[in-house]
Amino acid sequence: MQLRTIDPAALAHLSRALVGFDQVMNQHLQQQNGNYPPHNIVKYSDSAYAIEIAVAGFKKDEISIQVDQDRLIVKGTQHPSETDKEYLHRGLASRDFEQTWTLAEYMNVKDAEHVDGMLIINIERIVPESLQPRKIAIK
Length: 139
Hints:
Immunoglobulin-like, 1 helix, 139 residues
């Protein structure tokens, strides 16, 4: 069997789930993991990336980030409010979430910060020196 065409839906699912595979990355497609919470995948250079996640309403201690082999897992669990509120309009989502991304080979989650309602996870590609191209001197 020969592959003649690529199913756009299959490519969309693949490109959204992989970070660091630039050949198939298409940031305009909807995320495989769903749209909640909204997020961006940013490429700063060939070795520097970030995932920006809108986590308005979540405190630092309500968010967990875990790397399990080649998977980046971000979870948000809000603690129930101690005050009873009656919402006249509820336009802000406040549900728990779990997002998972598969990281490409040599991708390393460097750090994360929670700033102004955004969770920013910095990722860098660290290719071992033995696998990097090297220049051979001519004698």
